Structures are given as structure tokens and as C-alpha cells.
């Protein structure tokens, strides 16, 4: 595929930052990378000094393939590309420089042609290639991943999912090769999580056969729109559609916002969102529309159509169904955000665990000091998040496979919402813990964890605020639970386990193997069952007093979120053990055994960290104490394998940090 190099030439001139074009901004000392690579070439694993590489008890390559799923060579080819100085990290650059550098990097990545046929045909292979690319890029720098995710995933994804076949065929090739650069304009200053409430209007004008788009008030200005301030020429605009005076709800339109020379089109005003806490390589903007005329065939009409003479039709009967379908591109976005989020956790753990293995502090008088990783208190901070990261990656792989197969239904919505919330929370917590675990070194930008943390933070908010997502999960699955209740206990689907509610209550956890699926499922199901039953009772109590069901849900929102988390954590355990079963059946015993330990630690820490298990009676005090003891026990068991485990994430030295290797040599006077 020919990428539109003319587009990038123009963009590089527009994002004018001379220091970036001439690459004169200072580089960090990169000798540590050459050292690590020289060790690799000599056949020595580049571990931190004094760290004896344990003989892995599982096949690291197989583990990596299990985690990455596909496109291994492609990922490695990107890691190789990132040895080009354009991709070297630079810190303390101005906003303009960071944005310019992102464009410069995008050009080189786009030039590889990797995005060809990722939107046009939307095959499983195309989606896998797209996801693998974004994940690889995210390991280099998060802004770059998000900048591309907005253009290809959100803008391109909206056109390809919401446009009909003719519209897709016309526009997606141009989006893939960057001839049409776009952004995704859903959020407004006054409405973010509440998308239904957005106020931008698109009124169909029969005489001119155009939609007239207006921003009716300041709260309706489009806000936070990635790429809008400088690079985008087009936007996937979400607006309330009016036909013959009737509002048909939120619909997507393809709208030109800039001419190819970068000037804004008449009626569109664009402003900058300014400096952010992170992700400053992305030019987020604000937009106002004043009588902007959008051609009739730019309503993305896969699900809803307006005839030229002004008749509205839709494939969906209810406005709610229509609204749900118009947000489909967000599910794909949540898959990418979850995957990108775990990349940050994996990198941070790779860096911190290596440092914890080589760094020593305190020790018996007159003897060598003790390695940090040999302190149980230190293990308890890094090994549980490591275990959870493995569990979440394997669970996420189920979601990715579902998305790649094009299963866009209710289950994708629940999984993508729930997993995105829990994965991004987990990653942020891991980034904070790893930052602290590296002490002062964790606060140095060149050691990556700090900048990664500030950039990743917003993953908790965009593509759906995590709290709001958990509420949405409960709202979606609660009706299924209630069907079982109303049928007198004939629970089906996910809740079928409740047919034997008594057996679940009576199960003796202390007599079970804490690494088994039965153990994890018992404890997670008990919590879910208790919280959903509690929610049903509380809602009924409230609606009996005459309040609406919406108000009752809002009144119970804390419990609603607890129930959502319980549901998602149970789903995760189910999917994780499904993978373990497959591995076991496929003869991958060593990999499965290691993962089973990770799963056991993940379950133990989940219970140990959340008092809700005790509060709702899912575990007794004695069982809670057992879980707490299990955390320490499994940390100790996993301790000899932590290096092999982070090795299986597959990141080469140049994507890690100096403290992951010989930090003393790196900081020596001779390298000043
Ligand atoms: C860096 C960045 C990039 C972005 N990029 C884009 C983009 O390209 N395109 C785009 O369209 N949007 C984008 N967004 C917008 C993003 O999707 C929204 O910020 C997000 O949906 C949250 O909306 P909000 O900021 O209005 O927060 P609000 O919805 O106002 O939420 C504020 C707080 O209220 C809480 N809250 C809200 N409702 C409830 C409730 N019912 N019960 C309890 N608590 C509640 C939330 O949990 C949150 O903590 C971006 C945002 C950022 C920060």
C-alpha cells in the first residue's frame, strides 16, 4: 500500500518544531543498551549484575506466544524499527515538539504498510495485525499508540462499522493510507459519560438535501477530541439527528473540518485543549459548528437511513437498540485500551522486577546485603500484580478473539466494558507500585515507569469512565439474573450455577486445592450470588415505595458497582481456567502449571484486598485468613520464577530501562 507521503510531508511542515526535524534535542545516554545487546550476542542473557539466571521450568517462548497470541515476527520487526533514533525517548520537550515527534514517528510506522486491509475488509487477520501493531507501538511510547488508535480505530472504526458497504468501500482505503486523516468527536464539554445527552444538532434540510450541523451552546462544544487541534481533516461526528422536527437520537456523520492545506472549513472553529498530564504527543482539540452543511450521503447509514425526501428508517425498532449500535466502535476501542494498558503493566513489571533482583538493601552485620526481591514484604508488592497481569492477559485474549471474530453483540459489550475497567485499574495500580518499588530510581524519567504512569492514567476515563462502565455491566446482566429469580430458580446461561445454590454455600474451601478452578469459582460465585441477591432485594424495597427503577438503580449505585466488579472478576476466573484446561489438554503441562500458580495467587490477593467478600458472607473469617496466608505462600513459590515470567513478556533491552540492567555501570563517572 502506498501511504500518502504527501499528507505526512504537509503535516511535518505544519507541526513545525525545528528541533525535532533536525533531531537536535538532547539524547539520553544509551550505552546500557549496547552493553545488554553485547551480552546477548555473546550468548549471555543480559540480566542484572550478580543475578544468576534460573533454569526456566517452563518454555519461555511458548509462554510468550500464548500471551501475544499472534504476529510474533511483526511485533519483533517493530521492536527493531524502534532502534531508529526517531523513536528514542526524549524528556522535557515542549508541547509542540512532542506533537511534532509523534507525526514524525507515525510516518515511519505507516510507511511499513501494516494498516493495509485492517479496515477495508475487517477480517480477523486484519484486526489481529492492527492490535499487534498498536501493542508494539505502545511499548515504545503511549502517545503514539493513542494517536494512531484515534485515527484508525475510532475514526476508521466508526466509518467501517457504521458506514454501509458503499461508504466503507469509498472511504476506508483512504483512511488506511492516511489520505483522509480523521478524529472521533463524541464527547462534549457538558456531556462525556452521558453520551445520550450530547447537544450537537444535525438537522436534515430537505431542499438542500444536507444535514445542517450546529453547536447550540457552549456546553455542546466538542471537547478532548484527539487529533482535532492540528492533524485531522475529517471527523466522525456524533450528533442528535433531527428529521422533520423529530429527534431520532445520536447518530454518526462523516464531516470535513479542515481543508487539505490545514485551514478550517467555513463554520468550524477549532481550539486547543492544551497541555495534559501525559499523552502530550496527541493534539486534543475542541470544536464548534455553525451551520456546517454535511452532504446527504455522509450520514453513516449502516443502521439508520434518511431518504433524500426526508423519511427516517432504521434497522432497529427501539431508540435504545439504535443508540447501542451507534456506539459499537467504542467496544473495539475498549479492546485496544485494555491491551495497551496491560502493555504498560508488563513493561513496568519487567523493569521493576529486574531491579528488585539486583538491588540490595540492609542485611546481616558484616555480610552481603539482601536482595530486595528476597524480602517477603517486597515480594508481596510485586509478585501479586505479576500474577494478575498473566491472568488478565489470558482473559483479555478471549475478548480480543471475540472482537476479531466480529462478534459485536451484548457479550462483547459486557466483556469489553468490564475488562477495560478492571485491567486499566490494575495497570495503574501496578505502575504506582513498581514506581515505588524502584525507590528514587523509579522517579527518573529514563527509567520509564513515571512517564508511563502519567500517560496511562487517563485510560481509566476515556472509552468509558471505569465506574460508569461497571454500572453498565450490572445493568446489562441483572435482567438475566432476575429471569432466573422470577422463574423460581431456573437459572440459565452464566447464572446456571445458582441452580445448586445450596451446594455453593456448603462447599468446604479448606478441603479444596487452592490452585484449582473449583476453589476460585466457588469463592467468586459466592460473592456474585450474594451481591446480586442483595441488589434485587434493595431495588425491590425502593421500587415498592414508588420510585422509578432508574432512580432505584441510582440509589443503589455503590452496590451496583460492587456487583459489576464481582461479575467481571468471576468471568475472568472462568475464562482463565478455560485457557488452563485447553493447555492441559494440549499437553502444555509446564506452562499450565506455572499459570495455575499465578491464578491461585490472583484469587488469593483478590479476596485478601477486598473486604466485600467478608461483608457479603462469601468467605468466613477463617477462610479470609487462609486467603491471606495463601498470598504469602504463593509469592514464595513464584519467587524463583519471576525473571523467567517477565522474560516471557518478550520486550528487548532497548524497550526497558537502565535500572533493568547494570545500573551502577550506567551511573558511573566515566559515563558522565
Ligand atoms: C486525554 C483524553 C483524550 C480523549 N479523547 C477523546 C476523543 O478522541 N474523542 C472523544 O469523543 N472523547 C475523548 N475523550 C473524552 C472521554 O471519553 C471523556 O472524558 C469520558 O467519557 C468521561 O467524560 P467526562 O470527562 O465528561 O466525565 P464525566 O462523565 O463528567 O464524569 C466525571 C466523574 O463523574 C463520575 N460519574 C459520571 N456519571 C456517574 C454516575 N451515573 N454515577 C456515579 N458517578 C458518575 C465519573 O465516574 C467521573 O469520575 C478524551 C478524554 C481525555 C481526558
TrEMBL record:
This protein's record includes keyword Flavoprotein: yes
Cite the Acyl-CoA oxidase C-alpha1 domain residue spans from the record.
Answer: 329-476
Cofactor(s), by name? FAD
What cellular component GO annotations does this protein have? peroxisome
- Enumerate the active-site residues: 463 (proton acceptor)
Domain Acyl-coenzyme A oxidase N-terminal, residue spans: 82-180
Q: Which UniProt keywords apply?
A: FAD, Fatty acid metabolism, Flavoprotein, Lipid metabolism, Oxidoreductase, Peroxisome
Keyword Chaperone belongs to the record = no
Which GO BP terms sit in this record?
fatty acid beta-oxidation using acyl-CoA oxidase; lipid homeostasis
Which Gene3D superfamilies does this one have? Answer: Acyl-CoA dehydrogenase/oxidase, N-terminal domain, Butyryl-CoA Dehydrogenase, subunit A, domain 2, Butyryl-CoA Dehydrogenase, subunit A, domain 3
Q: Which domain of life is it from?
A: Eukaryota
Where the record annotates domain Acyl-CoA oxidase C-terminal, the positions are 521-656
Record localization: Peroxisome
Q: Which InterPro entries match?
A: ACOX_C_alpha1 (IPR055060), Acyl-CoA_ox_N (IPR029320), Acyl-CoA_Oxase/DH_mid-dom (IPR006091), Acyl-CoA_Oxase/DH_mid-dom_sf (IPR046373), Acyl-CoA_oxidase (IPR012258), Acyl-CoA_oxidase_C (IPR002655), AcylCo_DH-like_C (IPR036250), AcylCoA_DH/ox_N_sf (IPR037069)
A molecular function annotated in GO for this UniProt entry is: FAD binding
Q: Where is the signal peptide?
A: none
| Major localization class | other
Locate the Acyl-CoA oxidase/dehydrogenase middle domain: which residues? 183-292
Family according to the record: Belongs to the acyl-CoA oxidase family.
Name it. Answer: Acyl-coenzyme A oxidase
Amino acid at each position: 500500500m502506498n501511504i500518502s507521503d504527501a499528507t505526512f510531508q504537509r503535516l511535518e511542515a505544519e507541526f513545525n518544531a525545528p528541533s525535532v526535524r533536525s533531531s537536535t534535542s538532547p539524547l539520553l545516554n544509551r550505552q546500557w543498551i549496547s552493553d545488554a545487546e553485547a551480552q546477548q550476542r555473546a550468548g549471555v542473557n543480559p540480566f542484572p549484575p550478580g543475578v544468576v539466571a534460573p533454569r526456566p521450568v517452563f518454555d519461555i517462548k511458548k509462554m510468550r506466544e500464548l500471551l501475544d497470541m499472534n504476529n510474533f515476527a511483526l511485533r519483533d520487526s517493530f521492536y527493531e524499527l524502534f532502534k531508529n533514533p526517531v523513536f528514542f525517548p526524549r524528556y522535557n520537550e515542549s508541547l509542540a515538539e512532542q506533537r511534532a515527534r509523534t507525526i514524525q514517528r507515525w510516518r515511519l510506522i505507516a510507511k511499513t504498510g501494516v494498516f493495509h486491509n485492517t479496515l477495508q475488509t475487517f477480517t480477523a487477520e486484519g484486526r489481529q495485525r492492527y492490535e499487534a501493531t498498536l501493542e508494539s507501538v505502545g511499548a515504545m511510547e503511549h502517545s503514539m499508540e493513542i494517536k494512531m488508535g484515534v485515527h484508525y480505530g475510532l475514526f476508521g472504526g466508526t466509518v467501517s462499522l457504521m458506514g454501509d458497504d458503499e461508504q466503507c468501500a469509498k472511504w476506508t482505503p483512504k483512511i488506511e493510507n492516511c489520505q483522509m486523516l480523521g478524529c472521533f468527536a463524541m464527547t462534549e464539554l457538558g456531556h462525556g459519560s452521558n453520551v445520550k445527552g450530547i447537544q450537537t444538532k444535525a438537522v436534515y434540510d430537505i431542499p438542500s438535501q444536507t444535514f445542517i450541523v450546529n453547536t447550540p451552546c457552549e456546553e455542546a462544544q466538542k471537547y478532548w477530541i484527539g487529533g482535532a487541534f492540528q492533524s485531522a481533516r475529517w471527523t466522525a461526528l456524533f450528533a442528535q439527528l433531527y428529521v422533520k422536527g423529530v429527534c431520532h437520537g445520536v447518530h454518526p456523520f462523516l464531516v470535513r473540518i479542515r481543508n487539505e492545506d490545514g485551514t478550517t472549513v467555513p463554520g468550524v472553529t477549532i481550539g486547543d485543549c492544551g497541555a495534559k498530564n501525559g499523552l502530550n504527543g496527541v493534539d486534543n482539540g475542541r470544536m464548534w459548528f455553525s451551520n456546517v452543511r454535511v452532504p446527504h450521503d455522509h450520514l453513516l447509514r449502516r443502521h439508520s437511513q434518511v431518504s433524500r425526501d426526508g423519511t427516517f428508517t432504521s434497522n432497529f425498532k427501539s431508540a435504545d437498540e439504535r443508540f447501542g449500535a451507534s456506539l459499537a466502535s467504542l467496544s473495539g476501542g475498549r479492546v485496544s485500551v485494555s491491551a495497551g494498558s496491560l502493555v504498560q503493566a508488563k513493561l513496568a513489571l519487567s523493569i521493576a522486577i529486574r531491579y528488585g533482583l539486583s538491588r540490595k538493601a540492609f542485611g546481616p552485620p558484616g555480610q552481603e546485603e539482601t536482595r530486595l526481591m528476597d524480602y517477603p514484604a517486597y515480594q508481596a508488592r510485586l509478585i501479586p500484580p505479576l500474577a494478575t497481569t498473566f491472568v488478565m492477559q489470558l482473559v483479555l485474549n478471549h475478548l480480543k478473539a471475540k472482537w476479531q471474530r466480529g462478534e459485536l453483540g451484548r457479550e462483547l459489550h459486557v466483556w469489553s466494558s468490564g475488562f477495560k475497567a478492571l485491567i486499566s485499574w490494575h495497570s495503574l495500580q501496578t505502575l504506582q507500585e513498581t514506581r515505588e518499588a524502584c525507590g528514587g530510581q523509579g522517579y527518573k524519567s529514563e527509567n520509564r515507569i513515571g512517564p508511563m504512569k502519567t500517560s496511562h492514567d487517563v485510560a481509566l476515563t476515556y472509552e468509558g469512565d471505569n465506574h460508569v462502565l461497571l454500572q453498565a455491566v450490572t445493568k446489562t446482566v441483572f435482567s438475566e439474573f432476575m429471569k432466573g429469580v422470577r422463574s423460581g430458580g431456573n437459572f440459565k446461561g452464566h447464572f446456571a450455577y445458582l441452580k445448586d445454590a445450596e451446594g455453593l454455600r456448603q462447599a468446604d474451601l479448606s478441603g479444596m486445592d487452592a490452585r484449582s478452578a473449583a476453589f476460585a469459582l466457588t469463592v467468586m460465585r459466592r460473592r456474585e450470588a450474594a451481591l446480586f441477591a442483595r441488589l434485587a432485594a434493595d431495588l425491590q424495597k425502593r421500587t415498592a415505595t414508588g420510585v422509578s427503577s432508574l432512580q432505584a438503580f441510582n440509589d443503589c449505585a455503590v452496590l451496583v458497582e460492587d456487583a459489576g466488579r464481582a461479575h467481571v472478576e468471576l468471568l475472568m476466573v472462568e475464562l482463565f481456567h478455560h485457557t488452563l484446561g485447553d493447555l492441559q489438554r494440549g499437553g502444555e503441562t509446564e506452562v499450565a502449571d506455572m499459570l495455575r500458580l499465578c491464578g491461585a495467587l490472583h484469587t488469593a490477593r483478590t479476596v485478601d484486598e477486598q473486604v466485600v467478600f467478608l461483608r457479603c458472607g462469601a468467605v468466613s473469617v477463617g477462610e479470609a485468613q487462609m486467603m491471606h496466608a495463601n498470598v504469602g505462600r504463593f509469592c514464595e513459590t513464584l519467587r524463583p520464577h519471576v525473571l523467567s515470567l517477565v522474560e516471557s513478556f518478550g520486550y528487548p533491552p532497548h524497550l526497558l530501562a537502565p535500572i533493568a540492567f547494570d545500573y551502577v555501570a550506567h551511573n558511573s563517572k566515566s559515563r558522565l
